[in-house]
Specification:
Layout lengths: L5 E4 L2 E6 L2 E3 L17 E2 L5 E5 L2 E5 L6 H18 L4 E4 L3 E3 L19 E2 L4 E2 L10 E3 L4 E4 L17 H22 L3 H7 L7 E3 L4 E4 L10 H19 L3 H8 L1 H10 L2 H12 L5 H13 L6 H5 L2
Antiparallel strand pairs: 1-12, 2-3, 2-6, 2-7, 4-5, 5-6, 8-11, 9-10, 9-13, 12-14, 13-14
Helix pairs in contact: 1-4, 2-4, 2-6, 2-7, 4-8
Length: 307
Amino acid sequence: MRKKHTIGTDPEFFLKRGKKLTSAIPIIGDEEHGTKHNPITLPSGGTVQRDNVAVEFASPPAETREQFVESIRACLKDVMALIPKDTTLEALPSADFPSAELDHPEALQFGCDPDYNAWTVEQNEKPFCGSQVFRSCGGHVHVGGIQEDGKPIAGMEFLLEFEGKLAMVRAMDIMLGIPSTILDCSKAAIARRELYGKAGCHRIPEHGVEYRTLSNYWLKSPELVMLVYSLTNDAVKMVQKNALEKVIEQIGAEDIQAIINNGNEKQAAEVIERYIKPHMSKESLELFDMCLSKIKKVKTLSAEWQI
């Protein structure tokens, strides 16, 4: 029996033709296929759909770092094969779209399923944006505690319990959310965070948790994906070892939320050095330093993923 969780993702991306953002609605599927209710199955085993004007794929659950990286690479390759050759897939946290690309009724539809705040234990209010052309992309992380036969994975039962789910999301805020304020600090990321990706943002699927705080920034390169995988492992261990409450007490629950919600890079760096790095694995420490030095030099998705 497996003793490790599964991990998957359902990130969103924008499409660009030349220097102009273009809607995915006429490109992905048709009126009946490629929608949230009827996604297209990819050769890699994942699925793809359009979400408003963005492209969203879902990777198959992975059991190892190598599987996670390769399943994302395969999904990216499959999606790139579906779009026109003069069109590129872009990992942008947010952007303003040309109004001409927003004429379709689907371009005015936004996610209707509610998500929740693991700190207040309340449903998040639906965000209101004053701009009619602003759109954003998430890079949600799914952590599962169920085997293929439907039985719990040994040691991961907490992922199937309400309090355990909340603990996991809070641990992910510490291990992934706070570092993301340093790695994902562009103007586009800050604009997204004003509406989406607040601290503790999650859904509670049967398989475990869906952590919804991160943008799609971490899909830009295999190294960033490896980092997210490794930090997720660290978050799992923090909960398993009953270390979470002590770390929350050290940092402060309100400060954890404020750092993420306000994108406070300076405070994030201090908290990472003092309280978070002691809970990072050797692999996470090495990957974090590597990604931190490279984040502003990341190339196109095709170049980074060698597709």
